[in-house]
Queue: 2 jobs
Job 1
Amino acid sequence: MTAIRIAVIGGGLGGCTLANGLLKHPHIEFDVFEGSSAFKEQGLAVGLATNAQSALKKIGSDVHQSLEAAGGVATASTRIIMELLKPVPKHQLHVDKKLERIEQGAELLTLHFADGSTAQYHAVVGSDGIHSTVRKTVLADHPDAIEPFFTGFWDVRTAVPIEVAKDAKIVDPANPSETGWVGDGGFILHQFINNGELVGCIAAAAADESYDGTQWRNPVTKEKLAKALGDRGEFGESMIKILLDQPEPFAFSQYESAKAPTYSKGPVCLMGDAAHAMTPWQGSGAGTSIEDAMTLEFLLGKVTSPSQIPAAFRAYDEIRRPRTQKVVESSREVGAAFCGKDREMGVDVQKLSAGLQRKWDHIWSLDMDQHLADTSAAFERFKDKA
Ligand SMILES: Cc1cc2nc3c(=O)[nH]c(=O)nc-3n(C[C@H](O)[C@H](O)[C@H](O)COP(=O)(O)OP(=O)(O)OC[C@H]3O[C@@H](n4cnc5c(N)ncnc54)[C@H](O)[C@@H]3O)c2cc1C
């Protein structure tokens, strides 16, 4: 079988999961190009729900074991990446390789990097995050869909050792449990990371007129946090103190990808945040990236010649785009509800409870076998048409 050369652009969770999965397919020769100086994740931690765990199992048992080795389902993200990359030969992993543009040739794509070097591949997978360069190629005919937009919410995050959280009384020492507090305009959450070694603390709020949503992040003060979160008594005071007790406390603007009309163009496709960056409210950015990686790895395993890649990427687009864009929308809706901004539910506890309790079903309950069967059928259809 002809060797098929694939470039994976971006070494975040999505790109690294795909790299791990592609090791199963000897006919795929791949390289991962990371623009920064190391393979690492932006986020504090990722909680991987049942859908993400099922997708990891489909990719291969080693990956699932990697997750356990990295500390369980809510894990410092960079640790997961290190586990995923362990089996990938070092010569296939390239750092300080920022893609600048893709040039389409008759048979090969030429990648131009910021350091002046070039490389040629049959196909490119853009897992280069919310400010994706690959997206500019895929959506060249849809310029309005290239840039992400501010959703009107911001958040402040940190992580502290469990003992610090207990001393500050934000975690009940007798009965430690992860909790979210819904409020009128603001939301507070804490979650356990690395099997409970750390407590991730997050405060989020709807932006008021003083917040600059054109900036990726803005300085945050005690007064701003207190105003956004309202009176939460001693607990709120402790949480604010913890959130501000970091070298550079910032409020991060929550952005979302514009709704893309396609995730692929010929032999180039998008995955993860490059395709569908979403707000963090349903904790599904990482999980949907892993599902993307599972689907792409499955399809690329079926491709027997470079000429079949556009059909594989069309199948990927047909199956993954509706699924992921629905998650983007529901995540935004959950955020509004958590911050007391849903018009119907407001801060009515019973309405919130009834309205929110089924909101995760469509994310968690994806039948991976059926999803891959649908993907396979779509690939056969597009392959026949080609
Ligand atoms: C602060 C923060 C907190 C988060 N918290 C959570 C959470 O709790 N739960 C959750 O599920 N998700 C969370 N997410 C989202 C989650 O991290 C992502 O949705 C998910 O990991 C998608 O990863 P990705 O690989 O698609 O993109 P990214 O992780 O963004 O990786 C993209 C990679 O591409 C590289 N890159 C960019 N441009 C280029 C280029 N031109 N050339 C080469 N390389 C390039 C970047 O350096 C980066 O390493 C969070 C994100 C952030 C920013």
Job 2
Amino acid sequence: MVPVLEMEANALAAAPSSAAGTAIHVDRVTVSYAVGKNTRKVILDEVELEIAAGEFVVVLGETGCGKSTMLRMILGQEQPTAGAIHVAGKTIDRVGASCGYVPQKYSLFPDRTVLGNLMMGPETANYHILGRLKPSFRAFRKAVREQAMKQLERMGLHATDADKYPHQLSGGMQQRVAIAQALMMKPTILLMDEAFSALDPGTRGSLQQMLREIWLETKPTVVFVTHNTAEALFLASRIIVLAKQTGPGRAGAKVALDMRLPETGMSLKKNGQRFLDLVEHIELCSQGFEAAAELTLNFEGNAQ
Ligand SMILES: Nc1ncnc2c1ncn2[C@@H]1O[C@H](COP(=O)(O)OP(=O)(O)O)[C@@H](O)[C@H]1O
Ligand SMILES: [Mg+2]
């Protein structure tokens, strides 16, 4: 059973945003790798998770517990060893167009300008190379260019940045372009893997703010992996902690905490001690599945 912090879950429960149905179902997913001839290393152990459309789910957990693996499976880049991933009710067996993906290390095309990078996705998805000879391609291109310029502005970049090449931009600016690039495809699901982890604190803060605004405006389903608990509490409408099982005969990570948060976002400044208590609770949960179960009892006991 998943140890959910009942008291907190009830007190913090956001209005259900599941009216639009289940966006992602991680359906009893196990991932293991062969180690030698007869042994397998289990990474995820029958992980079960349903994410409703419009949720902002932040996945936390210690390094190596399988966060990136889970994200890549939702993207369709990797397949579970057992179980399945369903996106909008369909089992995922390849990379599809419904997910936008932003990893920590931006992957812009170095030989294309910012504008070229932004336009490339929609162009390739809609017109193959010969199709570009059609008269309709010009009008399509114009519309895509307009969208790209809007996205740039939305991400806090200048119109003059459109003609720059990636190497002429700072890491923070490149990451803004990477997010704009993902949004150009109008994904219903946005997957972000430590997308802000390499940025300086100022840039990180402004990108967090901007991502929150985008989410509140258009309510895409977001699955955001991070190491940073404060970032998680600021962004998430729901926090999932993955933690390795440490008991005898157990292997792989499971969901150790599943907690809903208010849509207003939490910060130390706004929530004070409550914020600090939650940070401590979440960090203890990430230390181990058994520790999380024990901690839940303690926390509930203390609260009575
Ligand atoms: N192809 C692979 N073969 C063997 N082990 C792998 C492979 N890919 C990932 N792993 C292992 O899976 C575990 C989880 O990795 P990952 O999902 O990257 O964790 P996280 O993102 O939480 O840090 C790590 O221990 C990693 O070494
Ligand atoms: Mg990772």
